[in-house]
Each structure stands twice: as structure tokens, then as C-alpha cells.
Amino acid sequence: MKTTKSLLQTGALALTLMASSVMAAVSVDEAAKLGASLTPVGAEKSGNADGSIPAWTGGLPQNVGSADAAGFLPDPFANEQPLFTITAKNVDQYKDKLTPGQLAMFKRYPDTYKIPVYKTHRTAMLPAKVIEATKYNATHTKLVEGGNGLEDFHSSNPFPIPKDGLEAIWNHITRYRGGSVSRFVTQVTPQTNGSYSLVYFQDEFTFRDQLKDYDPSKPSNVLFYFKQRVTAPSRLAGNVLLVHETLNQVKEPRLAWLYNAGQRRVRRAPQVSYDGPGTATDGLRTSDNFDMYNGAPDRYDWKLEAGRQEGDLHPLQRLQTGLAETQVQRHHQSRSY
To answer: What sign does the dihedral 102-107-113-115 (CA atoms) show?
Structure first.
């Protein structure tokens, strides 16, 4: 009986842990913080004590400026001057706010490398449709298949108040990126002697719900579509990668195809995932390293560090996060972790 009871207790504990990993949605009371003490997508709304991190007050206004002939908005902070500049001579004063890479740059290029530090602005904002979807997700979306898929998920931001690292990485994977995107990218893979060759790409990306024939009544495991075409150099030009990114990649692995222009053949490309080599990177980058991280999260243990370091949003980080917030996050929103 003792053994049976022990097994029953162990089984009950396992079921409890399993239930907690599946039931990831927050309560209605906790979700009510969104738009109140938290921003609509879960970031801290208030600023810090000394004012170097301002409060979020709604993001960059829509009437901040008119787009130019190429469709770009003007820099709303073009007239601002740096608060101060970090150089190799004063870098020791700010070592606790800089990354190892930045410190290494000061050592390698002491006469030319510098970091101008500007006032911090919190410009991020999202379309009303995305904010409404985030509110819904907060109390409905759940992790399934051991955390490798989402259930009852609308659009983006499944976990605006993440409880662990797995929920946080799903926020990144599914984040809003403007609906559909077309861009030109240049990539280099430097050799040890510093030499490199430029590789040019044209990327196209769209979420499934942005397609003209999208039918919400027809369920699908596809999250988004991605196409990448090499435009130069000539030895690689014309090669194309096509990806149908699935939401639950354990249930249905990502669908990928490669077109080789030299062979004029299309092949399935199951290696375009996890630690498979990235396109034209000479093995220096893995497939899941693209876009910081992409693909199924099942081969990693994700941890959400408790607490927040103020340095994460300090003006010294504007080179890394401040400019990204101004220029990028108003398109795909800052993360809530």
C-alpha cells in the first residue's frame, strides 16, 4: 500500500506539473494590468527614479512627420545632441553599462571608436488590432505539446505577462513585424585575416492572416511565410529559399525548399532548421540564429531571469536598444521581458 500511495502521489504531482505547464494563460485580474500599470503588451509603464528612463505615454504620435518620396518617416529626434560621449579615455566610468563586445571595440580601436549617448525615448506602439489580440491571448493562449505549440492563439504576443523563458521566446517568435515585409539585406562572413565578400539578399515575409485569400474559418498550422532570394554575387545569384513556418514544429516540422539556380532544381530542405548552416554563411551562423532566434524551441532549456536590471533600459544602451526602439519597435513592438 505504501508503494501504491507513493506512486499515486508521484503521479498526482506529475499531472499537477503538466497542468501548470499547459495552463499558461493568466487570470482576468492579472490581465487587467495591461494598459494600466503595464503597457498594452506587458512592459513596465512607469519610468525610473532619476528620470533617465521615462514613463511610456502612448508611444510615437502618428502625426510625428510626413513620409518622404521613398516612404520613410523623418527622424523625430534629429535635432537632439548627445548627453555625453564615451571614448577609450573615459570608458572605465561606464564599464558596468557596456557589453563585452563594446569594451573589446574600445581596446581594438582606442583612437576611433566612440559611443555618443542620447536621451532615452519610449516610442513603441502597435495597431489597435494587435493590442486587442494581445488582450485576448493573455487570458486564453496556452502552451501545448510540452511547450512546442500554442493553443487558442490570435495574431501576435501570446504571453504579454510571461511566467517563464519559454513563454518569453514565443513572444519573440510570433511578434508583430508590420504584417508583411520586403527588405534588402547585405551579409558578410569575415575571415580571420579580415577579408570578406558581400552577399546580397531580398527577403519577403508575411503572416498567414495577411494573405488576400486568408479564411479564418479554415484552421492551419502555418504561422508565416518567408522567401529569401540571393541577388549577388553572381556565383550565388538566383538561389531561393522558401519557408512555410509552422506554429507547432514538433507536430509538423517547418516546410522548406531550396531552388538552386545553377542546377535549376527545387529540393526539400529539412536542414534549414536548428543548427543547420545558415544560407551563404560558410558555416559561421546556424539557421536558428537568424532573427536572433527562430524555429522550434524544443532543443533548448529556456530560463526567464527573475527581476530586471535598470541597465537594460539605461541611456547608455541606446546604441543597442534605444535606436532599435525608435526605429524598429514601433513596427514590431518592444518585448515585455
So the answer is: positive
